[in-house]
Amino acid sequence: MTPSAPPSRSATTDGRADALVGTPGEDLTRDGVERLDAGQATLLQGSASGLTTSGSFALNQDTPGILDSTESGDRFGSSVSLVDLSGSGHAGLVLGADGEDAGDGIVLYTPVHSTGFGLARTVALRRASLGTPAGAHLGQTLTP
Q: What does the domain layout of the chain look like in residue ranges?
């Protein structure tokens, strides 16, 4: 599976372009059990010389503040985007998991403010809240 990465925007408070990369085929282990294709997303931070792994971090459904928990086939990070939905000047994280809930899918939005990431304020858009049909694979594709 090829990682996906939308155009770079600043998700941190330094104003430098960052990149959010989704790896939906990533296998993760929780409680000694391997979760195949659970997926994750990694935020690479920008520096004066470009993107760097220094200060980067990975998110998955076991990250505190990110809703649900990792399960095989969730494909968290199936689509990712950095978008300023709040008008704060900081790009929030938009993350898809198109395999969540047996293929119904989910889209998560985590805001970013001047004080940093708002993982505790993550919003989930699901089949039930949007009225999409079963198996719609929400989060399979996002438009930046």
A: 19-130
